[in-house]
Amino acid sequence: MSGTFVGMPAFPEAAREAVGNRTLRANLRHATHTIRDKRAKAVAELADWQQLREAGKQIKDHTLRHLDRYLLQLEESVVRAGGTVHWAADADEANRIVADLVKATGEREVVKVKSMATQEIGLNEALAAEGISAYETDLAELIVQLGHDRPSHILVPAIHRNRGEIRDIFRAEMGSWGRPAPDGLTDSPAELAEAARLHLREKFLRAKVGVSGANFMVAETGTLVVFESEGNGRMCLTLPETLISVVGIEKVIPTWQDLEVFLQTLPRSSTAERMNPYTSMWTGTTDGDGPSVFHLVLLDNGRTDTLADEVGRQALRCIRCSACLNVCPVYERAGGHAYGSVYPGPIGAILSPQLRGTQSEIDASLPYASSLCGACYEVCPVAIDIPEVLVHLRERVADRGGKGHRLEKAAMKAASWAMDRPAVLAAAERAATRTRRLHPKKLPGAGAWTDSRELPELPEKSFRDWWKGEGR
Q: 439 lies in a domain?
C-alpha cells in the first residue's frame, strides 16, 4: 500500500514533536471541539439515532460477508449503464490504469474531487511522474497542495492551518499553479474563499478529465455517490468529458434503499448538518448530460486481506465521517501527521496497519496510539469497536517478536507457571512483601511503561496472609 509519509518516524517520536508545537495544538483544539460540539447537537435531534447506527452496521456487515456477489452485481450494473470497470489489486496497478486512461484522452491535466483512496495510492505523484498535473479542487485539499503539505484530517485535511497561514500560502503559491491571489488578500474567510473560487474556476472550465472517489456505490443500480460541502465536486463530476473514479471495494452497498440510512448518519457525524449540501449521484453515462466516458477503478490494496480477519474486518465498515478524530484526546494533541498515513486518528490506527501490514516501524506503532478510552466507539455511526481492534492489532505486533516482546513473553510464561502452583505463588508473595523496601521504582526492561507511571507500593502482608489471619 502507498500512502505512507516517507521519512516519518514511528508514532511516539512524531507525536512527541507535535505536542511541543503550541500553534498546532491550538488549531487542533479549536477545530475539533467546535466540530464535536456541533455534531453532538445534530445527533441529539434524532430520536432513532441508535437504530440508524445499528442499521448502518448491519448493512455494512452484510455487504462484507457477501462482497464477492455485490461487486460482481455492481460491475454488471455499471457496464449496463455505459461505464467501464477496471479491477486494481494494489496501488501500482490502480495508478497505472488511471495514468493510461488519462494519456489515452491526450490530456495532460485533471481536476480532482477530494478522495482518500487516491491519496492512499499516491495518485497525484504517480500522474506527475507521467507528465500529468492533478489539481485538487476541495478548498482544504487545495490549501494542502499549494502549501506542499500533507493532509492531517479525513474531513478537514488542512485542520492544522489557521487563517493567517492559509493567506500566506495563497499569496505565495497560487500564481505558480494558475490564477494568482488578489492583491491585498487578507485572512478574512470570505476573501480566502473568493480567492480559491476564482483560482479554481478557470480549471473547472478548462479540464477535460475529472478524477474522483466515491462515498458509496450501489450494486443494484451501478450508481456512485459523492458527499461534499462546497460544490467543487459537482463541477468535477459534471463538466469534464471523461470521469475516472477510484473507489475501495468496501464502499459498495446492496440497494438504493440502503443509501437512506447513510444519507442521515454521514452528514450529522461529519459536518454536523441535517442534510448534505451537495450529494452527487451518477449512473454510467447519459447522452448530453455530464461526462460522455466513465471509468470505475475498483481498488483492493489490502482490503481482501483485512476482510479475512474476523476482528479487524470491522474497520472496513468505515464511512470516513471523521467523528472518531474529533473526540480522540490523542489526535487532538498529536495531530494527523504523527500517524504517518493518509488515514489519521483512531480509524487510521486500525486501518493503516491492516492495509499496509505491521512490518514497518510506523505501522507497528499505530495500534499503541491510543489511550483505549472508547470515545471513538461511542461516536462511530457504524459502531466500529476501535478499542477492540486496537488491542487485537497490539497482539499481532507482540506476536511478531523483538527484544522487548521476547522479555514480555518470558515474564508472562513465568507468571503463568507460578499461578498454576499455589504454594509457589504464596511463597513469591511473601518474599515480595518482605523485600518491598528494596524494590526499584521502575521495572527492568519495561521503561516504556514505567517512565510515566509509578509502581504501586506493596502492602506489609499479602492478601492471602491477611485473609488467613484477621480477614475472616
A: yes
How do residues 145-173 score in pLDDT, each as one tens digit? 999 999 999 988 998 999 999 999 999 99
Return the closest-CA partner of residue 156 out of 369, 22, 331, 281: 331
In a domain, 433, yes or no: yes
Angle (CA) 355-297-250 rounded to 5° is: 45
Residue 258 in grid coordinates: 440502503
Q: Does some domain include residue 316?
A: no
Q: Global pTM?
A: 0.87
φ, ψ for residue 155 (rounded to 5)? -90, -40
Residue 156 lies in a domain: yes
CA distances to 25, 152, 185, 334, 369 from 22, rounded to whole Å, are 5, 16, 26, 11, 20
Residues 47-94 pLDDT 10s? 999 999 999 999 999 999 999 999 999 999 999 999 999 999 999 999
User: Which of 250, 274, 303 is where one domain is finished?
Assistant: 303
pLDDT tens-digit series, residues 345-400: 999 999 999 999 998 899 999 999 999 999 999 999 999 999 999 999 999 998 87
